[in-house]
Design the sequence.
C-alpha cells in the first residue's frame, strides 16, 4: 500500500466529477509528486504539468519518460499557466487542476524547512530560485505586519497573533530566528496554554509564513480567472484547497461565476444579467471516511469543481 504521504488527495472524487476523457487536454498546475497527473495520463489525457519546486520537476521528468507522447512539464508557477499552455500550442484546454498548499514530500523533507517536526533552516520556499526565505521574512517584518500576517493567513485570534509577534520581535534583539526549532520554541513560549494541546502551537504560524513566502494568495487570485479564460466551453476547473481562506476565495469565485443575474436591490426588482456569468454548474466534494482512514492529511481538504458555460452539458 502506498504511504499516506504520497497519496493524491480527493483523487476519486476529482475523477468522478471531472470525468476526464481520452485525448482531452489538462493542465495540472501543481504537479507535486504526480498522483493526479498519473491518473489523468492513465485515462488517455494529454497533460501539461507545472510546479515551482525543482524536486517536483525531477519527478515529473521521470513520469514523462513513461508517457512521452501525452505529457509535457514546465518549471513554473501556476499563475503563468496560460503562457505555459500557449508555449506548447494550447490556446484552449479541457480542464485545469490546482491542488493548493504544500505537498507531502515537501513537508517530509526536513531540509526544506516547512515543518517543525525536524530542526532545519527556516526556509519554506517552494521555488528555491527566489531569494526570500521564511527566516528573512521573520527577521524583517515589523510587529504590526506580523500580527496581520498571523491573523489573515494563520487564522490566529488577534490577541494570540500579538503575543507571537511581540515574542518574535523580542527574540530578534537577542539572536536571529534561523531554524524551524527556533520559531517553534518562540511560538510555544508565547502561547504556553497551548503546549499540551493536540495541535502544536506553531502550526498556524508556519502555515501563514509559508503562504506569505510563496505568495500563495496572490498566485491563486491570478490563476483562477486565467484558468477560466483558457478553458474551452464545457471545460472543467477543479481546485483542491486545505486552508479555509483559500477555500473561501475559490468558493466566492465559482459562486459569482455561476450567478446568472446580479443581486437585485429592493428599489429595482428587474433582474440584471451577470456579465461575469461564466460557469454553468459548481460542485463541492469532501474526503469520505475511507479516504480519511487511509490518509489523515486529507482531513481539511475541499474540492470545488466548476464547468464553463457552453459545450455539452456537464
Sequence:
Amino acid at each position: 500500500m502506498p504511504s499516506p504521504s504520497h497519496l493524491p488527495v480527493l483523487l476519486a472524487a476529482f475523477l468522478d466529477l471531472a470525468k476526464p476523457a481520452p485525448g482531452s487536454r489538462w493542465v495540472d498546475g501543481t504537479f507535486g509528486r504526480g498522483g493526479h497527473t498519473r491518473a489523468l495520463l492513465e485515462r488517455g489525457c494529454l497533460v501539461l504539468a507545472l510546479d515551482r519546486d525543482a524536486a517536483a520537476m525531477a519527478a515529473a521528468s521521470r513520469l514523462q519518460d513513461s508517457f512521452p507522447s501525452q505529457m509535457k512539464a514546465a518549471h513554473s508557477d501556476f499563475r503563468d499557466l496560460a503562457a505555459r499552455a500557449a508555449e506548447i500550442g494550447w490556446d484552449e484546454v479541457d480542464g485545469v487542476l490546482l491542488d493548493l498548499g504544500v505537498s507531502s514530500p515537501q513537508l517530509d523533507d526536513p531540509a526544506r524547512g516547512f515543518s517543525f517536526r525536524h530542526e532545519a533552516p527556516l526556509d519554506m520556499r517552494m521555488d528555491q530560485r527566489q531569494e526570500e526565505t521564511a527566516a528573512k521574512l521573520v527577521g524583517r517584518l515589523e510587529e504590526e505586519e506580523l500580527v496581520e500576517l498571523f491573523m489573515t493567513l494563520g487564522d490566529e485570534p488577534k490577541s494570540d497573533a500579538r503575543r507571537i509577534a511581540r515574542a518574535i520581535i523580542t527574540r530578534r534583539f537577542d539572536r536571529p530566528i534561523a531554524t524551524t526549532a527556533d520559531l517553534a520554541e518562540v511560538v510555544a513560549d508565547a502561547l504556553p496554554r497551548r503546549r499540551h494541546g493536540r495541535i502544536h502551537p506553531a502550526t498556524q504560524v508556519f502555515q501563514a509564513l509559508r503562504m506569505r513566502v510563496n505568495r500563495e494568495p496572490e498566485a491563486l487570485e491570478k490563476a483562477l480567472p486565467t484558468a477560466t479564460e483558457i478553458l474551452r466551453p464545457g471545460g472543467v476547473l477543479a481546485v483542491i484547497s486545505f486552508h479555509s481562506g483559500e477555500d473561501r476565495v475559490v468558493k466566492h469565485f465559482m459562486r459569482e461565476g455561476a450567478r446568472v443575474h446580479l443581486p437585485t436591490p429592493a428599489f429595482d426588482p428587474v433582474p440584471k444579467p451577470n456579465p461575469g456569468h461564466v460557469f454553468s454548474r459548481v460542485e463541492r466534494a469532501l474526503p469520505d471516511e475511507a479516504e480519511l482512514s487511509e490518509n489523515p492529511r486529507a482531513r481539511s481538504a475541499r474540492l470545488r469543481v466548476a464547468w464553463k458555460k457552453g459545450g455539452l452539458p456537464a
Q: What stands out?
A: Strands lie at 25-28, 46-51, 71-75, 93-99, 231-241, 279-285, 302-308. DSSP finds 13 helices and seven strands in the chain. The mean pLDDT is 91. The longest strand covers residues 231-241.
